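Structure request: 2-aminoethanethiol dioxygenase, Cirrhinus mrigala.
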Amino acid sequence: NNKTSLIQKVASQAYVTFTNCSSSAIGDNKTFLEQQTELVTLVSDIRAADLKIAPPKKVSISSQPSSAVPPVTYMHICETDVFSMGVFLLKTGASIPLHDHPGMNGMLKVLYGKVNIRCYDKLDKAESETERQFDPPLLPFQRDDVRRAMLRSFGQFSHQSGPCILTPLKDNLHEIDAVDGPAAFLDILAPPYDPDNGRDCHYYKVLQTAGKKSEQSDEDETWLLEIPQPDDFWCGGEPYPGPDVSV
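Returned structure:
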């Protein structure tokens, strides 16, 4: 049906792609990979105009946002047991701190502006994990919240870029920074966050190892500390103005 909106086609394909897929099956599941390729093709074509959103008009210096204005807002498009989909809008200079997506797949497509995305993979715990020294030193209660990780990728994305993809095991942790102005991106997560089923969002910071400033290996191994949600980050909501979506 040529009258079906592109975002509706994306939602329908996301539902097909992620229904009955498990993290253990992904990677060698030919059907999943074929469905995911189709989803990537559709998502790659999405533009801000398809969702009836546009970059905010420039504001004067006298009307700069105050500390009461959330740095990031979210437009909810749809959610099922299989996936959730919405748009994140980042104000100039805003960041979404390093966070994880436990057991989840995801896809992120920039609609306007530019963002830097830094992705990490968690690594298995090492026996020396509790013996490693950090600068500044960790407090005793923080030791259990340290994890080895690997910097998987770092890149800048614009509306001309293809989607950034995460899986339960690869590129699963990421931080997103708006570059040179406001930015917005379409976000698909499968399955959605669900704290009751172990899919809660956790925040992290990268630790500096004591001693040499660059102790990272060739694989860019690093260390992350789980932290509470940063005080300077919170997310507001605003209405989604685009075509209706039903799944």
